[in-house]
Amino acid sequence: MPVTPLPLLIALAAPPWAWQAQAVHVHEGQVRVERPCLEGQGWRLQAAEAVGMQDDACQPRWHLTGPIEATGPDTRIEASRARACGARLSLDQPRLRSARLRLEARRLHWAEGTLEAEALTVSGCGCPDPPWYVTATHADWTPGGGVWATWPVLWLGGLPVATAPFGYVPTGDRRSGVLPPRLGFDGQDGLHGRLPLYWAPSDRFDLTLSPGWRQARGAEARGLLRWAQTVDDQGQLEARGIWTEGGTISGTGSAGWGPARLSLAGAASSSEPARQAQFRGLPERQRDHLAQSTMAVVAGADGELGGQLLTLQDLRAEGRPHTLWAQGWAAWRAPAAGGTVGLDLLTLERLDDTSAGPVADIALRAEHPFALGPLQLEPRLGAASVTHLGEAAGADQALVAWAALRAELAVQRALGTGHHAWRLQLDGRLAEASSRGIRAPLRPDDRPFSGRGTQARLESDLVGADWRFRVGGAVPYEAGVVGDEVAGLGPALVDLDLDLSAVSLLGGWGGPDAWWGSLQVRPADALTLRAGGAALHPDRQHPWRRSPLDQRPALLASDASPHRTLHGGLASRLGPVRLDGQVVVDAESALAYRGAWGSVAFEGRCQCWSVRLDASHEANRPWPDAAVALALTGL
Fold this sequence. Notes:
Shape: elongated
Structural class: mainly beta
Number of helices: 4
Oligomer: single chain
Radius of gyration: 35 Å
Largest sheet: 26 strands, antiparallel, barrel
Number of strands: 48
């Protein structure tokens, strides 16, 4: 008497799946379904035939014969045969297509959270005919991790470009594996390249190792270790070295320490050639660089305590010895009657020159901003003492006491769909100083109270639905100063900001030796033109000229020397190609060429790959610096 396989029929009809078939046959413990079609959870599965049977090892066991098709959210799977036994599944000649994955194999087997593949071809590109893919004779895949492959081969455009006895292709969010190589050309060292290896065993830390080679110097290597236990407990440690020249190491980190936070930072270099080779572009190589530095800071809600030991060397002066400095500081802030009071302590000592002696700087300040109707007032009081304990001159000291008041009146009016606002601001300061023949060599950045003077500033701001125009101006006056600075009426300071749909203009003027401007025009959605210039000649006798220029755009961020320059550039996108570049010329030397930099990026079809070329050149270098990066989606 035949046995009806009731568990098979119940499983076939159980929700959330709905099914239909051309015919169902039950015979001797088996269920044979012709043209089955199952639908549920956004998926649809079809096959030529399905046979189910009872099995003591797994309940139930199914065999499906093809063609088999499964379609789901942005995914399509095809196979010639399928076998399911409980949670284990095997597919013959499977093909998978999705927006970011193309996969083919001779056989796939899923069991215990691991997918095993034979004769695998896979690509992270969603094109119908991927421009790149990886093949392997055998592979094991763990969801959220990656694919361990035997004899993987990387193919670009149908040509094999790389292979290895085994490899790892990452597929999770934090993808351990081989990253795309970094190739470049340095105007001093020639060709160079690195192959980064990335390892992320957990969400809390990762490690990147990058062995490489420089044409003029030989083997090099870089390593970067990063960790983040919590928001307040994180950091990184980076080491870079050249086999024949030495190396550099640097790191930063922070961790909670009771109610405060402890931060550490350090850097060290064994040789000047190794240090220079790590910086890109001539201006960076010409700056003062830290040979060694160690810093520790404990910061809380009301203040901080820190110290630093550093060794400096001017790379522009060949043979100049290092200078060793020690620095310590403390800061305290506390609310008081609606305002704040603060105390700053700062010490600096040159350890390799005992005759210089230490310098101690102590400053006390109080602030109490308040409003009288539309008038905003911000009074400040403070005092400072700078003591120089040099052996040659004895104990020199400078004492400064100051009072300052800032008053601001702001009025706004509706203007059609926008508004108009204007502000009048007055800054007055009174400082009395006495010294014993020294000029204070150390001052906190937020202490602009040297001498007696005032500054008046008027600003007008018009804002519309899709445009803005702002113009402001200030006139400073110095009635008395400390040291050798000159008193008198300073040049007017003017700055403006215009932003329309196709035009942007930024600019500022503080005299013939202190002006800058930048004009940006967008004649089309895919094209932006830029032009501008700057004349930046800081004059120590006029401190009011220097402070407004802190807001200027960085035209040559690595070059802080006095100069007059003009620059022009463009940014455009022509289909898959993006261009961005800029040229700088010297306005003081008959428009002599000073430097240029730019980039060209090309994005392949289906956004499956991209390549980017960055280049820069300085007038004093015989060859440019260049670097190329290739990125493959999903690899």
